[in-house]
Amino acid sequence: MSPLTSFLQRSTPHALALFRIVIGLLFACHGASSLFGVLGGAMGQGGTVPTGSWPGWYAAVIQLAGGLLVMLGLGTRAAAFISSGSMAYAYFSAHQGSALWPIQNGGEASAMYCWAFLLLFFAGPGSWALDRVFFGDRGQEAAPSAQREPSAV
């Protein structure tokens, strides 16, 4: 195994944790802006979404709660799965009808969040997750290492 491969394998859980933290923080900011009118407010127009309005208020609650849970690494897989689904719903209900490609229909953020959360659902939280503090390594599968068949040369 080369030194680079060894370094990359040792670093993967930490890089995944940084990815999780950044994605969770950014997603939580979307929810906070819509619910509390901070950071530019709802849709960057100031103000908040009306409490209980469908789907905006519910999406904002999922964004805030899901983003915080993912950022902290607490129930990461469940929070990521729900967050991914909410972004898929947002993409297909609000964006996809106006044009085929996300760059054309304004749905890039929804599409990228959907796929980022789906990755976290499958890959898990990486290192530095609160789940490990509260529950140890129970239920935390390590990312499978890339195993290669010996090549027949």
From TrEMBL:
Membrane-spanning ranges: 21-44, 56-75, 110-130
InterPro entries reported for this sequence: DoxX, DoxX-like_oxidoreductase
Protein name: DoxX family protein
Keyword field contains Ribonucleoprotein: no
Family indicated by similarity: Belongs to the DoxX family.
N-terminal signal peptide: none
Transmembrane helix found in the keyword field: yes
One cellular-component annotation, GO: plasma membrane
UniProt membrane topology term: Multi-pass membrane protein
UniProt-annotated location(s): Cell membrane
Domain of life: Bacteria
Pfam families assigned: DoxX (PF07681)
UniProt KW keywords: Cell membrane, Membrane, Transmembrane, Transmembrane helix
